[in-house]
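Data deposition worksheet. Section B asks for the primary sequence of the deposited chain exactly as it was used as input, without tags or linkers unless they were present during the calculation. Section C holds the resulting structure in token form. Section D is free text for depositor observations; keep each observation to a single sentence. Incomplete worksheets are returned to the depositor.
Section A, Depositor: J.P.
Section B:
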Amino acid sequence: MGLNIEKFDIVLCKFYFTDLKSYKNRPVLILKDNLPFDDFLVIAISSKVNKLFDDEILIDNHAFKNGEIPKTSKVMLRKTFVIEKSMIVKKYGKLTDTAMDEIHESLCNFYQC
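Section C:
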């Protein structure tokens, strides 16, 4: 892959349609490197921020320690899943410690852990 991807990085990934021939690129937040497997536990991100639910957190470029995203977006805590590392197209950047703490606390509250 060549990219140095770590916890709380935001990356762009390929999401294949059911025909497995065409795909869309979508951003995700890396939650955990799923070692020893070749995938990551991630949270979906959407730029459709006109309506926010209780489990969604707004992020913009102020939330980044380094890098940036094209537009203000939301992290959707209810949409956690595993993605293969080879699906990562590019790295947007890493969130600040403050943004990471807010997401971590909200995630624990949402999943009651």
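Section D:
The two ends are 33 Å apart (CA to CA).
The mean pLDDT is 94.
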